[in-house]
Amino acid sequence: MAKRNTACPCGTSRPYEDCCAPVHRGVATAATAEALMRSRFSAFALGDADYLRRSWHSGTRPDRLELDPGTRWTRLEVVETGQGGLFDSTGTVRFRAHYREGGRPGVLTEHSRFAREDGRWVYVDALPG
Hints:
Elements: H1 21-25, H2 33-46, H3 49-54, E1 71-83, E2 90-101, E3 104-117, E4 120-126
Antiparallel strand pairs: 1-2, 2-3, 3-4
């Protein structure tokens, strides 16, 4: 896990302990779909597969999730959000997640769907295209 004063991997420039850590630990919930997306990116960057599974919609959640230790997630760019606010029940986030694998840089681009399940935001799936 990240050190106390380390900047959060999600890109907010806030310390991890004041940003995604409370959500990862289950003492807070993500207030918006974008906040959940950021917390999930941080979980990928920190290797927290348990949180990733917990933050996945029950209808699309994989039975197992194994993260590739050779992939280092380095930076998140949120490109666009659609709904996903405090009073919405669904939302989308288009993002670019930068990584390094085998010493080479890469970018994963995705347009993700999010929904509220039992009152909290969860990742549903990626939209096609």
